[in-house]
Amino acid sequence: MDLRSIEQERAKFAYEKVSDVKREDTKTQGRYRSYVKSAPVMILTNGLGQTLAFYLSKLDKNEAVDHSSLDPKNEQEGDKRAYAYLYRHLGEWLAMKVTGGEDPLRFYMNASGTQAIVLTDEAIALLSWLKRFADAMLAEDKNGD
Fold it and tell me: Which residues contact 60 (CB under 8 A, 6 or more apart)?
């Protein structure tokens, strides 16, 4: 019987996802690190739905699902890869822990106030772990934009 706490599960998930980003070029790592750091403030300021929609808007239609076709050497695509990773990481976790497999953005649009709060709180809790591991493991974005 596995008795891991939800914090341990978040930590394990975040470590594995940031490890995936660590295999990318330094520009993508830096951008991901920067976006993860700013995501909680963006969620608290604009709401989770607006934030997820913003990340989705940075991608082409199919890139939200599969970002492996993006060229890491292309600066714009490196930026897109970072957004794609962040969108997918949040989406995978929220679908697994809160929405019962439904797309979190779609779930958010149809959620009650209480469900939206639970979804938002879980996103911020995961981002706390992603931020910690990104700071520890990934290259810093030297451009700072």
Answer: 80
Calpha distance 123→131 (Å, rounded):
12
CA dihedral sign of residues 111, 117, 120, 121:
negative
Query: What size, in residues, is the chain?
Result: 145
DSSP string, 33-64: HHHHHHHHHHHHHH-HHHHHHHHHHTS-TTTT
pLDDT digits (tens, 9 = 90+) for 29-60: 999 999 999 999 999 999 999 999 999 998 87
Are the beta carbons of 108 and 116 closer than 8 angstroms?
yes
pTM over 0.85: yes
The tens digit of pLDDT for each residue in 84-138 reads 999 999 999 999 999 999 999 999 999 999 999 999 999 999 999 999 999 999 9
Q: What is the dihedral of CA 75, 94, 125, 49, to 10 degrees?
A: 70
Q: Among 108, 81, 102, 104, which residue's Cα sits nearest to residue 91?
A: 104
